[in-house]
Task: structure prediction
Amino acid sequence: MTSVRQTGLSPGPSRTGIPILGVPVSTMTMDETVAVLDEFLKGSEPNLIVTADSSGLVIAQEDPDLAEIYQAASLATADSIGVVWALKRKGAKASRVSGVDLVSKLCDLSAAKGYRIGIIGAAPGIADQAAERLRLLHPGVNIVGTRHGYFPCDDDEVVAQEVKVWESEILFVAMGIPRQEKFIQKTLPIIQAKVALGVGGSFDVFSGKVKRAPKIVQRLHLEWLWRLLSNPKKIHKVKMLPKFVCLVLKDKE
Ligand code: UDP
Result:
């Protein structure tokens, strides 16, 4: 069985980035990121990709297993404007490469090159609705399997055997941080997707269950506030923002 790079203690050879709270975060643009992922897809090894937002980096400070996954992933992109700010503070020319946007770009790549996409996560029915919407938005996208994300950790291997049958080259996992990253890390040796990434609440957005903020709100970088107002359950994530800022300001790395 091919080894999975992210399960080792050191980052893969292609890993570059600027350390933010101990995690090397990529400063590549979206187009450069997609080009790197295309290379991973042409390669022979599975790769875990992390879309790092401020809350994930804060959670990783107190969750050594998540920290290890973040440090050793093949690539960590800057998923939130807070992480872009932290990169810019270190003099980097960084841009946001979010999970939702990566899903769209990888669907375009699948439509162009035929890559097989598996999607797992969100409440029963939502992954199917997201797949339908993605097929409309990206004609020709090759989605080969969908599954909901509500199952106990003890069933991870059983679910992985189900997913393996799809032979996905790209796997989107939307089960929230850190559950999705831990699921991928544990099951990628079975599933063997070339590019597997945690995409948080993306299927809720694509299925239409949760609306994306209007473009103007996105441009003002206030999408987090929009999401909070639409879902007060997310307040705990917003509370992590000041903590993230404090940790970054104290970080001497
Ligand atoms: N979810 C899931 N399985 C679980 C817990 C959550 O599939 O055991 C889904 C949930 O329905 C939602 C997504 O994971 O679609 C989490 O979205 P959120 O925006 O909270 O993700 P995060 O902010 O952690 O990236």
The longest helix spans residues 99-113.
